[in-house]
Amino acid sequence: MSTIMILNGPNLNLLGQREPEQYGHETLADVEAMCKAEAAKHGYDVDFRQSNHEGVLVDAIHEAGQLIKAGKLLGVVFNPGAYTHTSIALHDAIKGAEVPVVEVHISNVHAREAFRHHSYISPCAVGIVIGMGVQGYVLGMQGLLNKVAK
Ligand code: DQA
What we know:
5 strands; 39% helix; Rossmann fold; lyase; 3-dehydroquinate dehydratase; DHquinase_II_sf; binds 1,3,4-trihydroxy-5-OXO-cyclohexanecarboxylic acid; alpha/beta; EC 4.2.1.10; 5 helices; 5-stranded parallel β-sheet
């Protein structure tokens, strides 16, 4: 069985308690359960991760690249949190490791502060889901399956 990695960046461990007017009331554990249920429908497993540390996220993308080359992983649905707007290292990791990434944001970042309007991830993403709440993870998985699965 192949796997889809769901990768979450900083502060997403606080989902459910953090700014619920932006991010809703579901927790990251709820998101994991949703993703696992969706993956199972398509015969896939989920490797669900969260880190508050940029380097750990870079390492996860590198690991994803290896797993893809070994035929064990389809790609990554990635909510990079605030690193979206700052991280050239994550941009370079996605390109360097040749990982198909769907970028997901729970909130509509374009309706928020100007500093959230730029993404270093979007130019190297195969697709983007923005502002659809936590359902965006499921939509991102569907998009990844449509674009990448053979
Ligand atoms: C976010 C949007 C980012 O701007 C923010 O820093 C986050 C969450 C979202 O899912 O809407 O941490 O990626």
